[in-house]
Design a protein that fits this description.
- The protein is mainly alpha-helical.
- Helix content is 63%, strand content 4%.
- The protein has helices at residues 12-18, 21-24, 28-44, 50-69, 81-93, 96-99, 106-142, 162-184, 192-196, 202-209, 216-227, 231-248, 257-263, 277-283, 292-300; strands spanning 147-152, 155-161.
- Strands 1-2 form a two-stranded antiparallel sheet.
- β1 (147-152) and β2 (155-161) form a beta hairpin.
- α3 (28-44) packs antiparallel against α4 (50-69), α3 packs across α7 (106-142) and α11 crosses α12.
- It is elongated, with a radius of gyration of 27 Å.
- The mean pLDDT is 89.
């Protein structure tokens, strides 16, 4: 991801620690669905062309088919399901694949994929519980008059009916079904009081927001938007500039235009308009974005 920033690959042991493909490969379908929805959004907003959208969508379907057939080669050096799929997509369709990652991060993908997967698992468990409860109810109906011993502490207690015993388990599994429904509704009312009393430290938050090259993504977005550069290439250029700034002990906005053009010759003076934290948040004007005007709309809505 930040290949332009680092001169060497991670040590083998760190690659082994970071690799999650051994278990997150089960999120492949969710990752493809999320990427298809994201590509559709990018096209609808005019961020990528309709031609690139078609190439990405068709390429992702090809990747899905390879995974479902067992022909897909999962690579540990690509760390996770997100990079495995995107790398294969780039092999299939070339440059348009590099534009898919515009306006999202792998954190976005992880959160989206996991929530979709959990939702699907809850739905699958609920369907299985429905079938199990129905079978128990059928047994209860058939054995409504069948007498059997009840038990307490492993000792025979008062007599009960088979139907009553079956319905006891039906009730237990019904509670489990309700818990899965609650898990989907992934809500904690007890937090209300804590949230209501929170007070942000405005000055400290502003100071922290400017640290750690936080506007690097804005630079990458500018390269995509103004120069038509695939996002992956823009990320690499940004990483190279971050490395220069890091070595000099300065921020991105402190680099001269000449220095920036030594990495990417097409960069212009206009790039400095996006390298402050205030400009960064103001620029996020897509629906649901962090720009103050959008936040106000969402609060009002």
């Amino acid at each position: 991801m930040w290949g332009g920033r680092f001169a060497d690959r991670p040590d083998a042991i760190m690659e082994e620690i970071n690799a999650s493909i051994g278990f997150d490969r089960r999120l492949a379908d969710e990752d493809i669905r999320g990427s298809q929805a994201h590509a559709a959004m990018l096209a609808a907003c005019g961020i990528i062309s309709d031609e690139d959208h078609r190439a990405i969508s068709q390429g992702l379907e090809t990747v899905r088919g390879e995974i479902e057939s067992g022909a897909f080669a999962f690579r540990r050096d690509l760390e996770d399901i997100h990079m495995n799929i995107e790398n294969r997509l780039r092999e299939l369709i070339g440059a348009p694949a590099g534009r898919l990652h515009t306006a999202r991060s792998r954190n976005d993908q992880v959160a989206t994929d996991f929530r979709l997967w959990v939702k699907g698992q809850c739905e699958a468990a609920t369907a299985a519980l429905d079938a199990l409860i129905a079978a128990l109810v059928d047994q209860a109906e058939a054995g409504a008059e069948t007498v059997m011993p009840g038990f307490t502490h492993l000792q025979v207690a008062q007599p009960v009916t088979w139907g009553h015993h079956m319905l006891a388990y039906a009730e237990m599994f019904a509670r489990d079904r309700a818990r899965f429904a609650d898990a989907r509704a992934l809500a904690l009312a007890a937090m209300t009081g804590m949230v209501a009393d929170m007070q942000p430290n405005v000055a400290r938050l502003r100071e922290a927001a400017a640290q750690g090259f936080s506007t690097a993504t804005d630079l990458a977005d500018w390269l995509v938007r103004e120069l038509g550069m695939p996002f992956r290439d823009a990320h690499h250029v940004t990483g190279s500039l971050v490395k220069i700034a890091e070595d000099r002990g300065c921020d991105l906005a402190d680099l001269s235009l000449e220095t920036m053009q030594s990495v990417e010759g097409r960069i212009t003076q206009a790039v400095y308009d996006v390298l402050t934290v205030e400009a960064s948040v103001r620029s996020r004007v897509s629906y649901g974005g962090t720009a103050p005007v959008r936040v106000g709309e969402q609060v009002a809505g």
